[in-house]
Design brief:
Layout (H helix, E strand, L loop, with lengths): L5 H4 L1 E7 L2 E6 L16 E5 L4 E2 H9 L5 H7 L1 H4 L4 E2 L4 E5 L4 H12 L5
Antiparallel strand pairs: 1-2, 3-6, 4-5
């Protein structure tokens, strides 16, 4: 499973059976990004029109799977909606630094059961 998938972060363990890999998740885990993220890791994006998280993720990162980063960094704008509104200024992790975020979060939340 690619690093940018939200589901990967919560992997508790995997098990192979009949040539297939099965993933087991701890759905009670929660991700919070620190409020003091180094500003060199961040940039801003101005939303054009009404756009769902996945579209903005594609515009910034070239994939639809990184929507959750945008959500976590911009929760104060969301107010129980699943889209961004035109003119909103969003904070996002610079694409070249995203892999570092994934690795840190995966390391912190993954437990390998043997």
């Amino acid at each position: 499973m690619p690093l940018n998938r939200y589901e990967r972060i919560f992997k508790v363990f995997t098990e192979g059976k009949s040539g297939k890999q099965f993933y087991f998740y701890n759905l009670l885990n929660k991700i919070e990004l620190p409020s003091n993220i180094n500003s060199s890791l961040l940039d801003t994006y101005t939303v054009v029109g009404r756009q769902p998280f996945t579209t903005v993720s594609y515009d910034i990162y070239g994939d639809i799977h990184s929507w959750w980063i945008l959500f976590l960094l911009n929760k104060d704008l969301m107010n129980k909606k699943f889209f961004f509104t035109g003119g909103e200024q969003l904070t996002y992790i610079v694409p070249s630094k995203r892999a570092l975020l994934y690795q840190q979060m995966t390391r912190a939340t993954t437990t390998q059961v043997k």
